[in-house]
């Protein structure tokens, strides 16, 4: 299971087995999406399969994730998602009402994200070789002129900003999966981030890097960006926006909120001179109301992420080995 | 299982549940791929998931199907595939050498089809909720200027041409699955058809309709084209290129070659005046060496497909209810 978790085992699988097998430079860039040129148009393209269990959870469903996840991967290049494909793998015997609910969630989420599902496929597998419905989406969108957002562009001096609270999705799914209650219902943060990114780009096209910290959480993507760019990253631990309910649930479950999956969150690397204006634009957007400056890029310790603790010390934030929570998306 | 078989049950699922849920006109056109415009570029986009069992069979593997299938869906709009996404759902405990073989088959097939796998995803599901490796690909390609290939454009007077022999893929997979031998080894016809389509378009851009008859076989796609265009289709049964080994195997298995899946075959609807030249161009191409005129479109019996039998009678070629062979692609 660890190889699918978005951590070090996933990275090893991708870098040592898949990239050499498929072998091309676009793939080797390993952002959230590929950037390609076709017919003179500069396009972003991305795909994800969704196997989350349960399929319906507080705040969303596999259908929401399938749309928002791919829309968000495209948004991390600055692209606004235009068209999605949607392929279902349905286990024989799945209740038709479940399939209908999933399809309707996909349609509703696509309308909310202003993206069209233009092509699809459905396969049925025998009982015991699936699990209800698995969803794959792939998407394409146009990258705006003058925008060049890539993990490699993060650089010392960049402000590190997250768009909202950490850990909601992972804890929401985990709590319903385990039948746990934490006093307040914790809802997944799943949301389409294309509009938020456009609002940020309206402030400056010179945003360096964007990622949505899903599997592996913020800790994993910060490590990937540090490795890709060679910059060091310093977080202020006490500035991390961890809701009290998430902190409590993580304490109970033995999880670190830094490594818990999010589905409607982005982390942005913004040149220092634009940071205040970008932060203000994010806070003015419904999906960025909780935007927070959490750290900065530094020339020290290249490729390494550290957190300054409340006590004035520092600790290394490692790439997690696997995912703490299997089948979270 | 029938809902995934490419026949009437599949059509019902797509038309009554999925299209209304996702709801837009591009999707409702229901070709092998969507045709969209983005950034001024006229694009084709398609997706398929692959769940074929066994994953390796005479003539190919799930990796070949995953690349060629999506390349071919794009080719059916006249587009040459440019970029693919590739997403894997891996069952926990799958041997790493199997995963490596699948990835290498994908890479080799992509190189042969001259298409780049530019983005991907890997999910791992627990044992008993998958079956080795499932592969999804989505692809985009550019539709050439002046080309307008759609099921709706088939019209009375069109010649109906297939690019090669029928039934090889389905019989190849079925024979290894059931441990059957038919004297000669029957190999899947899986192949990328983009080059063949370009050779046909070099004769005339005015090809009306193209389909690759995979699930549900030639019988299903002829019915879909007849329904979409409102034309009648008449086949000459004795001209159908059914290899003797396929005929024998189908006899033994109780299958009709008209409904057996193909993976490297296309059926073309070509205005009569271009039919000879297109046929000649197809026969000059490695993937069209066995191209054959099998029938024509007629104004009689709109929307219906009939076959003239060797005895001078006619029989109706219906849309199959489900797929004769589950998990064939």
TrEMBL record, chains A, B:
Organism: Streptomyces carminius
Protein name as it appears in the record: Hydrogenase expression/formation protein HypE
InterPro entries found in the cross-reference section: HypE, PurM-like_C_dom, PurM-like_C_sf, PurM-like_N, PurM-like_N_sf
Superkingdom per UniProt: Bacteria
GO terms (BP aspect): protein maturation
Pfam families, per database record: AIRS, AIRS_C
Residue span(s) of domain PurM-like N-terminal: 32-143
Residue ranges occupied by any PurM-like C-terminal domain in the UniProt entry: 156-301
Record SUPFAM superfamilies: PurM C-terminal domain-like (SSF56042), PurM N-terminal domain-like (SSF55326)
Family affiliation: Belongs to the HypE family.
């Amino acid at each position: 299971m660890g190889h699918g978790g978005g951590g070090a085992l996933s990275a090893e699988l991708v870098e040592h087995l898949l990239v050499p097998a498929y072998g091309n430079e676009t793939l080797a860039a390993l952002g959230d999406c590929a950037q390609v040129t076709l017919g003179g148009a500069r396009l972003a393209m991305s795909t994800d399969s969704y196997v989350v269990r349960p399929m319906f959870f507080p705040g969303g469903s596999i259908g929401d994730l399938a749309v928002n996840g791919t829309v968000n991967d495209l948004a991390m290049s600055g692209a606004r998602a235009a068209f999605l494909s949607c392929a279902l793998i349905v286990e024989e015997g799945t209740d038709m009402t479940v399939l209908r609910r999933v399809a309707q969630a996909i349609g509703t989420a696509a309308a909310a994200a202003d993206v069209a599902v233009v092509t699809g496929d459905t396969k049925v597998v025998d009982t015991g070789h699936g699990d209800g419905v698995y969803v794959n989406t792939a998407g394409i969108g146009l990258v705006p002129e003058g925008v060049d957002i890539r993990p490699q562009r993060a650089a010392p001096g960049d402000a590190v900003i997250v768009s909202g609270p950490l850990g909601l999705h992972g804890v929401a799914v985990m709590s319903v999966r385990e039948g746990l209650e934490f006093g307040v219902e914790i809802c997944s943060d799943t949301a389409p981030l294309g509009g938020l990114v456009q609002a940020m780009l309206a402030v400056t096209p010179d945003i360096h890097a964007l990622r949505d910290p899903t599997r592996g959480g913020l800790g994993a993507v910060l490590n990937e960006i540090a490795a890709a760019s060679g910059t060091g990253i310093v977080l202020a631990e006490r500035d991390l926006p961890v809701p009290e309910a998430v902190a409590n649930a993580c304490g109970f479950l033995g999880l670190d909120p830094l490594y818990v999956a999010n589905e409607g969150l982005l982390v942005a690397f913004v040149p220092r001179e634009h940071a205040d204006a970008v932060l203000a634009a994010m806070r003015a957007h419904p999906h960025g109301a909780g935007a927070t400056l959490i750290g900065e890029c530094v020339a020290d310790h290249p490729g390494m992420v550290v957190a300054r603790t409340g006590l004035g010390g520092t600790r290394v934030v490692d790439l997690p080995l696997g995912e703490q929570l299997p089948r979270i998306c």
